[in-house]
Amino acid sequence: MRTRTINVDYLARVEGEGALRIDIKGGRLDDVKFRIFEPPRFFEAFLRGRNYTEAPDITARICGICPVAYLMGAVHAMEMIGGVTVPTPIRNLRRLLYCGEWIESHILHMAMLHAPDFLKYPDAIAMAQDHPDEVKMALKLKKIGNDVMKLLGGREIHPINVRVGGFYRVPTRREMRAMMDDLKWALDASIKMVKFVTSLPFLEFEQDYEFVCLKHPDEYPLNEGRLVSNNGMDVPISEYDAVLIEKHVPHSTALHTYVNGGGTCHVGPLARYSINYDQLTPLAKEAAKDAGLGETCRNPFQSIIVRGVETVFACEEAIRLVEEYEEPDRPFVQMEPRAGTGYGCTEAPRGICYHRYTIDDAGLIQDAKIVSPTAVNQKVIEKDLWHYVEPNLDRPDDELQWECEQAIRNYDPCISCSAHFLKLEVNRS
Amino acid sequence: MTLPEKAVPDVDGGRRLVIGVGNVYRCDDAVGVVVARRLRNRCRGVCVAEASGEGASLMALWRAEDDVVIVDAVRSGASAGVVHRLDAHVEPIPSAFFNYSTHAFSVAEAIEMARVLGTLPRALVVYGIEGSRFEAGDVMSSAVSGVVDDVVERIAGEFAFSASER
Q1: If you measure CA to CA, which chain A residue comes closest to B117?
Q2: Which end of chain A is more exposed for a tag (fewer CB within 10 A), N or C?
Q3: Containing domain of residue A149, as a range?
Q4: What is this structure's pTM?
């Protein structure tokens, strides 16, 4: 019996360490394994015994590209325990900080990590030789996202200005206004980026996903909302553990997630867009329409377009938040600890990021659970690979490998975040 | 002090810019910032910037007419305290050199991207100081702190030589 193995030992252009192995035996697809071998990081374990005030700064170190997701998950959970509601200016600053993260993360992924797949370049540096204007535009956009992070978060990587109850320091109106010209440029540039990625060649690959994301009655979700799906799920985030369950599998140091009583679920831009289309800003809707997207999108290869639409949204939203900004009387609301369990679930660029903490009366953390979006998406990535490889078994290994890696990058996986654990092997026998 | 083999040229209208890259709360990763801060006091007329190493922000720091020195901690497998000097106009910067990644777009990728886009500064030298400890903490290893003076003098020498060449 002829065996073919397509093996990628170490996936490039993703954060962290993972691999892919595809086994084909006798002309039939035998197995697909998306392996995450990044060592476990034990964040949940070493949070135990720490003060509740430390959780945002500790968990922000989980990721260099989406630290805001971890900051926000932690502060929302602690504030739920303490019964703290932050005033509108603080809430809006958090939303603006998240816009900064979406801009820099989405643009990095679109232009630097994913677009080269579509255009058959090994990396963004090679792509830049033929597409210098797009790459320059993307770099400037990313820097504007970084600048928002720096102004509100204190620095562009691993912000240190967020605390339970608000911020250590809030920006002045003048500092906020100083970003306006750049944000207006960014809005225009993000619309051009959508046009660029829409021109890429796309594979036909519509999938029947159970999308899971946050939904908020008044806004496109960033920090807050109920946990909903296109399959009837609609619960408060405090019921996350009842509706989404985790299982350990031998080939991954990151736990796989399933819908309780159901199958896999898909989190991230496609889910947010498809469930929250109505909440997009006008220019984001227009960009989506011009890109040929409907009100839902089920082709994961088109996630690059949806990320572009969400970048338009983030720029438009950031401009609104800057225009409306009034300095709060105090940069934070004081919280007094009390024993209890709190939940935080926010929309990282890659999808929902869930936190649950239990603290005691002294404010010491007794238990912590953190679920990254990449961990949730692992199983659906494997399913995509099955569905993509099976009808394409006759294709040469090198083409299959390229498109399988591209299919993984559809999810902008952040393996470092997911490891509690990438490398591609295709084995044909 | 030994003058570098290929000193940084000085260009009319350009700045002499030192960029210290690193995280001062990560032991040896602080060394780039420590060297840059020392040069702020040591050299008149030298601009000093501190950077996290994030690629897009790093590329925005320099202009085409600048003479730039980047100082960063590296981990290439050499002994702690070994100082590497790389001239970006002479050789590519190895991406595996730097102890940092934000989805793989950091110092080396920024320099190589700038080379392709034609946005490298007129002169760009990278000093990489081999580190051994990168855990949380604000104390550098003795092997790394012991070479700070030497690196400061070598970079000052680069700029002094370029000034004398003007």
Answers
A1: A132
A2: N
A3: 3-428
A4: 0.89
Question: In chain A, which among 109-138 make CB contacts under 8 A with chain B?
Answer: 109, 112-113, 124-125, 128-129, 132, 135-136
Query: Minimal Cα distance from A64: which residue of B?
Result: B102
Amino acid letter, B29: D
State how far residue B151 is from chain A, nearest Cα, in angstroms. 26
**In 3-state terms, what secondary structure has residue A91?**
helix
- A143 in contact with chain B, both atoms CB, cutoff 8 A: yes
- Across the interface, do A139 and B103 touch by the CB < 8 Å criterion? no
Number of domains in chain A: 1
Query: What number of other Cβ atoms are within 10 A of residue A339's Cβ?
Result: 13
In three state form, how does the secondary structure of B98-134 look? ECCCCCCCCHHHHHHHHHHHCCCCCEEEEEEEECCCC
**B42 domain-assigned:** yes
Give contacts of B103 with chain A, Cβ < 8 Å. 13-15, 64-65, 108-109, 112-113, 414
Looking at this predicted complex, what is its ipTM? 0.80
Q: What is the CATH number of the domain that holds B146?
A: 3.40.50.1450
| Number of domain units in chain B | 1
- With CA atoms as reference, the chain B residue closest to A159 would be B52
Q: What is the pLDDT of residues B28-78, one digit of tens each?
A: 999 999 999 999 888 888 999 999 888 899 999 999 999 999 999 988 888
Residue B1, in any domain of the structure: no
DSSP string, A290-306: HTT--S----GGGHHHH
CA–CA distance, B1 with B5 (Å, rounded to integer): 12
Cβ contact, residue pair A13, B52, below 8 Å:
no
Domain CATH code at residue A174: 1.10.645.10
SS3 state at B36: helix
Q: Is residue B2 situated within a structural domain? A: no
- Asked if the structure places residue B155 within a domain, the reply is yes
Q: What is the pLDDT of residues B72-117, one digit of tens each?
A: 998 888 899 999 999 999 998 887 665 445 455 789 989 999 999 9
Burial of residue B63 (CB within 10 Å: 0-12, 13-18, 19+) is middle
Domain span including residue B135: 16-165
* Best residue of A127, A140, A156, A405 to probe chain B, by most B CBs closer than 10 Å: A156
| Long-range contacts from A388-395, C-beta under 8 angstroms, 24+ separation | A388/A205, A389/A22, A389/A24, A389/A29, A389/A32, A390/A29, A393/A24, A393/A27, A393/A28, A393/A29
